[in-house]
C-alpha cells in the first residue's frame, strides 16, 4: 500500500489532539482527554490508545509536539508541562518499537511554526518566526526553509528574556492581564469585543510590551515573516496598533520595511507541523 499520510499529534497535559495529514491537508481529526497527572505508563497507554485509532498501513511516519524540552537526536522528552511524571521519557524509541515506522518529536511551538510554513501563512518564504501568544510566549524558528530547533528543541525561548522587572512572557502573553491587572484574560477579551474602553486599553498596553518583545527578537533574527498564533491573536485588532508603534522604533529601518507580521488562520497548526517533522528532518 502506498504510504501517503503522516500522523500529527499535539500532546497536552489534559488533551491529546491529532489527525492524518496528506499533501491535501488534515483529515480524520481526533481530540481525547488524557490522564496528565498519571504515572509515566498511564500517560503512555493513553497516547498509545489514541495513536491506535489513527494508525494504518498508509501511514509513513508519526510526529508529536510536546510542551517541553526534547533531545532532537535521541527523542528523549524532558519535563513536559502539566504531565508531572514525564521527567525523562524515551518517547521516540517507545513509539517506534510499537508502530514500526519513523517517529519525530519536537517542542509544540516549533510544530506551530512548521505548520504555518508548510500549510499556512509561511508557505513559500525562506525564513520566518512562529510566535505563539497564549498562556505563554513561545516561538519556532524557520531558517533557510528548515526548522532550527536547537539541541534540545529549546531555541527561540524569547519569552524568558529579562524585561522590566520580570521577563517578556510575564508582560507579552495572556498572563499579562492576571499578572499586571489581576483580571481574567478571557473576561477582558469579551469586554474589549463589546467595546469596553478600559479593556481595550489593557490590550493596547499588552501590544506595546509585545512590540518590545518582537523588536528584541528582530535584533537576533532577520526573518521575512512573523506569524502570530495562540489565543491572544484573536484580539489582534485591539493591540496591533500599539505593537507596531513599538516595532517601528527598530534601529534598522530598511530591514523593517521588508518585514511582514501576519495572524495565523489555521486551526490546527500544531498537528500539521508535527506531521511535517519527519519530512523537515530529511
From TrEMBL:
Belongs to the ROK (NagC/XylR) family. It comes from the Bacteria. InterPro entries: ATPase_NBD (IPR043129), ROK (IPR000600). This is ROK family protein. It comes from Paraflavisolibacter caeni.
